Amino acid sequence: MNAACLPPEKTFWQNLNMLLPQFSLKTILALVPVAALLALAVASAAGGGVWGVAVTMGSVCLLVCLASYVLFFLLCTGLSSLVGSEEVVARTSRGGVIRESASSDKLGEEAVSSASLSESENR
């Protein structure tokens, strides 16, 4: 949710109207059988079933992979906010320079249009 959508006196972190995420009935009805099957696999693994151990270990590995993805995403997001944006300069085949950045989008569009005009004039 964007902070611009909220009234000026409230920000995203001050919105306490929703403490828990809102799930639809369809989501809950899909998650309950999955949780039941996972609990069955864990119970089978505790009883010595080979398939239960395999399913439990696969589920644990999947959760570890997802958690590491989230941690790396947060790490990269935090580092990118510290470093800032970088201006990208592209050289055209005719020797022109096109700058592309968040602050100079219009400049890049003007450079592209002037490059296309000069190509049409040379034909």
Question: Can you offer a commentary on this structure?
Answer:
Helix 1 packs across helix 2 (50-83). The two termini are 51 Å apart. Strands 1-2 form a two-stranded antiparallel ribbon. It has helices spanning 25-46, 50-83, 105-122, and strands spanning 88-91, 97-100. The protein is mainly α and 123 residues long. It is 60% helix and 7% strand. A hairpin with a 5-residue loop joins strand 1 (88-91) and strand 2 (97-100). It has 3 helices and 2 strands. It is elongated.
Strand order, sheet with most strands: 1-2
Write down the Rg. Answer: 27 Å
Low-pLDDT runs: 104-108
Order of helices and strands: HHEEH
Main pleated sheet? 2 strands, antiparallel
| Structural classification | mainly alpha
Principal-axis shape: elongated
User: Approximately how much helix is present in the residues?
Assistant: 55-70%
Summarize the structure.
The chain is mainly alpha-helical. It is built from three helices and two strands. The protein has a two-stranded antiparallel sheet.
SSE blueprint:
Blueprint: H1 25-46, H2 50-83, E1 88-91, E2 97-100, H3 105-122
Antiparallel strand pairs: 1-2
Helix pairs in contact: 1-2
Question: Any descriptors?
Answer:
2 strands; mainly alpha; 123 residues
